[in-house]
Amino acid sequence: MFKFFKIILITASLFSSIQLFAHEEEGVVTIHMDESRFEPNNITIEAGTRVIFENVGKKPHWPASNIHPTHGIYPEFDSKGGVKPGEAWSFVFDKAGIWRMHDHIQAEISGVITVTGTSTENTNKEKKGILQKIKNFIISIFYFDNKDDDSIIKSLKYDKKIEKEDRGIWTDDNKLFSYLKKYGIKDTFIQLDYLSKQGFGNCHQRAHKAARISFDIYGSAGLKECPLFCHSGCYHGITEAYFKKNGANNIKEEINNFCSSLKNDLFSYYSCIHGIGHGLLSWTNYEVPEALEMCSLIKEDRADCFSGVFMENINTELAGEEKDEHITKYKSDDPQFPCTIVKEEYKRSCYLNQTSRMVQIFGADFKKISNECSKVPEKYREICFESLGRDISSFYRSAPDKSIKECNYSPKKYRTFCLEGAVKNYRIWDISGGDNSIKFCTLLTDSNEKKLCYNEIIKLLNLITNKEEEKDSFCSKVEKEFEAQCRL
């Protein structure tokens, strides 16, 4: 027993010597942490600089890289637990890049560390020697297995016999990998969402992992398949994996490369650009103006990125929910916020999503929401009523007649925009969605509204497919007077 304690004392002494050595190095920067902020919260340092995170507050704080809660872009930058008041944790930033950070315990506290120069990662590994090996060994005992996520993903084994109902994907990475490969991203997230509702727990963190694995299989093209389940964890995880692989140092170039491989498939391309908006907002720790500015770096179709930012902001949870959920300060009881405070160039995209926030405030009282759309600045009323139509049809997914009825609350001047938003949302790329979109148009009695309706779904059909058999199947179901137009 005495020998055991002697070993612990020796290793503890060695561990302490490593910490003391940090303060003797050249190039040391200190960041103070308390209950309200990192101070300073935005610094630029040279690669190889050690940053000391000193807790000057009254509660533990946990510095880590974004994206919360998985810290997957720069996973080494993670204190692995709360730093107690009066204590400190240090980290050598040996990778050049823009590293966003947050307090894992109070995720609304955030900051940015920009590392310039040449990455010193390999050099530092050579210098660390036996003391660092001992330190890593101690960390692995007292904290958890910190094996690199990339190496875990690369070692996963595919089992083609995995069943669609398999619940093992919640805990078994091999099963999760097999499920993603066999059934695809969308079905995987449907299953994770189902398991979450069956009492398995909050699926957001598992969704991050699933998305990072999917990136290894499908690349950034997987964004086009991402659903909103598990608090948008699919978008977040793919963004994590992308930035981890490509870095965040050349954001202007990277953001334009993200979806470039999909330009021959316009629907997938637009979906991918939209997904970037979701990912950027989570990466910036829900700083809406900052994420929008990054979307502005996209050369083409940036409005889809803006839309992704606003949708992500609406769908995340408010402060006070579970620790591993995201926090935004850009939601309030004002049904038009944040559209009222963003720059003019972003307002259209904001109002295109804002009725979803109104649904959170007013419930499915579409009469109230219609009245609220009537109050927005006149130049954005049309887009607000289109947004209303989308949310109405989401609520009445299998009842187009009820969607049409709810659009009657819209003023006559704006009713067609409500109908347009509704029919666009009956996703014609799904079999049931296609049938519902045709049914929606068929139920309209006004000839102008009917014509507008078919114009919209035929336009969408041509956007999402150029396969003759798919178009033929769809067009054979439309009303005869529109069949020729559909087949063009």
Characterise this structure.
- 54% of the residues lie in helices and 9% in strands.
- With 488 residues, the chain is an alpha/beta fold.
- The chain has a domain at 2-146: Cupredoxins -  blue copper proteins (Immunoglobulin-like, Sandwich).
- A 4-stranded mixed sheet has the order 2-1-4-6. A 4-stranded mixed sheet has the order 3-8-7-5, with no helix packed on it.
- Helix 1 packs antiparallel against helix 2.
- The longest helix is centred in the middle third of the chain and has 28 residues, at 173-200.
What features would you highlight for this structure?
single chain; 488 residues; alpha/beta; Immunoglobulin-like; 4-stranded mixed sheet; 20 helices; 8 strands; 54% helix
CATH architecture of the domain at 2-146: Sandwich
Could you give me the name of the CATH homologous superfamily of the domain at 2-146? Cupredoxins -  blue copper proteins
Provide the structure class. alpha/beta
Uncertain segments are 1-25, 135-148, 318-324
Please state the CA-atom Rg, rounded to the nearest Å: 26 Å
Helix content: 40-55%
Placed side by side, the strands forming the largest sheet appear as: 2-1-4-6
Strand content: 5-15%
Largest sheet: 4 strands, mixed
pLDDT averaged over residues? 85
How many strands?
8
N/C terminus separation: 85 Å
Shape: globular
Which fold does the CATH topology of the domain at 2-146 refer to?
Immunoglobulin-like
Write down the CATH class of the domain at 2-146. Mainly Beta
Total of helices: 20
The SSE string, one letter per element, is HEEEEEEEEHHHHHHHHHHHHHHHHHHH
